[in-house]
Amino acid sequence: MEFRTLDPPSSGRRIDVEDGRQIVPEDPIVPYLEGDGVGPEIWAAARAVLDAAVEKVFGGQRQVHWFEIFAGRKAHDRFQDWLPDETVEAIRHYRVALKGPLETPVDGSIRRLSVSLRQRLDLYASVRPIRWLEGVPSPIKHPEKLDLVLFRENTECLHAGLEWSATSDEAQGLVHHLNDTLETNVREGSALALHPSSAYGSKRLVRRAIQHALDRGRASVTLAHAGDVLKMTEGAFRDWGLELAREEFAASTISEADLREKYDGDRPDNKVVVKDRRIDALFQQVQLRPGEHSVVATTNLHADALFSTLIAQVGGLGGSANVGDEVALFETTHEPLSELAGQDQANPGSLILAGVMLLEHLGWHEAGRMVTNALQETLRQKRVTADLERQMSGATLVKCSEFAQAVVGNLGSND
């Protein structure tokens, strides 16, 4: 593929797909978005760790060929465009990308860039592993008990962006239609947002969540929703998810009722339990009894708040993937933190963990495990950046770049 404003590497090949199966070459081209604020610093740190792990595991037989693409402030400064079309096309063409934190103007002139990327590339599943790394300060007594993967539907619900201001003709027209035709009682002058929910969108997310649980040997998939209040949308998400489990995974899943009645609560090793929880109950359970839930699938109405709650319990470190049927975008959960830009102080751990997810997506699991183990060892040694050092007794304060060097030094130490 030829680009007008981008400069792809002269060597390397793109990931291919045949019969729905990903074909990864030994020299994949991987686009990356450096990001805004602290983005360049944490990107440089993450790249150093990922490249070193790939070299150590594969000895030069495999290599990532990085390809810089642009979005956010850097794209606006260069092209007067916050999200150039060629950036989206590059990700679609190469089928994968790694993204740092992006700045979006707060004046409401454009949609949040991360949301726009998900929508335009149909990255319908946000996948966020949440687990504690030993040594990371946590506000709870037993963070090690939380080991959960959150699947969020990315393209429907309120994140579809179908909303109208209170003064718009569209909102006023909808209010009149609702009140006059459907005999509702929406106040005049109301702003409105739509909550679309479809069987197609719900089922493909739940399908991916159940398949993930089966592939990774996880015990359960919990469908989280507000179906007691929003019966036709949130309730439908639950119903469609349960229906999919019965129709497509009957041989490998069981309901909670069957678990109690047929197996006396003792889950068979080859079965995934499909659970159903109201979102308010789940918020309590993941804090009081975190080990009861292994994979959670939910709408994006709840997922951001749930993720923020869970990631705080394990100390704040975690990466994220946005996945479609043929394209995957891996990203930090870090904000740009522009006030720290250029100071070499930011924690690159989240982007490193996003890079681990990228390596796993490529099928390079040995390199992914090596990075995770090295990161864990560095945290155990208490060689940490300022955000963690201020919370840890006896810790050694290091810069962002020095933290990366420490992780590289620990590669292979525990493998």
Structure characterization notes:
- With 415 residues, the chain is of the alpha/beta class.
- 40% of the residues lie in helices and 17% in strands.
- The chain has 14 helices and 17 strands.
- The strands form 4 sheets. Strands 4-3-5-15-14-6-7-13-10-12-11 form an 11-stranded mixed sheet, with helices on both faces. A two-stranded antiparallel ribbon has the order 1-2.
- α1 (39-58) links the parallel β3 (29-33) and β4 (65-69).
- α1 crosses α12 (365-380), α11 runs antiparallel to α12 (365-380) and α12 packs across α14.
- The protein is globular.
- The model has no long low-confidence stretch (mean pLDDT 94).
What is this entry, summarized?
By secondary structure, this protein is α/β, with parallel strands linked by helices.
Task: Lay out the secondary structure.
Blueprint: E1 16-18, E2 21-23, E3 29-33, H1 39-58, E4 65-69, H2 73-79, H3 85-94, E5 96-99, H4 113-120, E6 125-131, E7 147-153, E8 163-164, H5 169-181, E9 192-193, H6 199-216, E10 220-225, H7 234-248, E11 253-255, H8 256-261, E12 272-278, H9 279-288, E13 295-298, H10 300-313, E14 319-323, E15 328-332, H11 349-362, H12 365-380, E16 383-384, H13 386-389, E17 396-397, H14 400-410
Parallel strand pairs: 3-4, 3-5, 5-15, 7-13, 10-12, 10-13, 11-12, 16-17
Antiparallel strand pairs: 1-2, 6-7, 6-14, 8-9, 14-15
What are the defining features of this structure?
415 residues, eleven-stranded mixed β-sheet, two-stranded antiparallel sheet, 14 helices, 17 strands
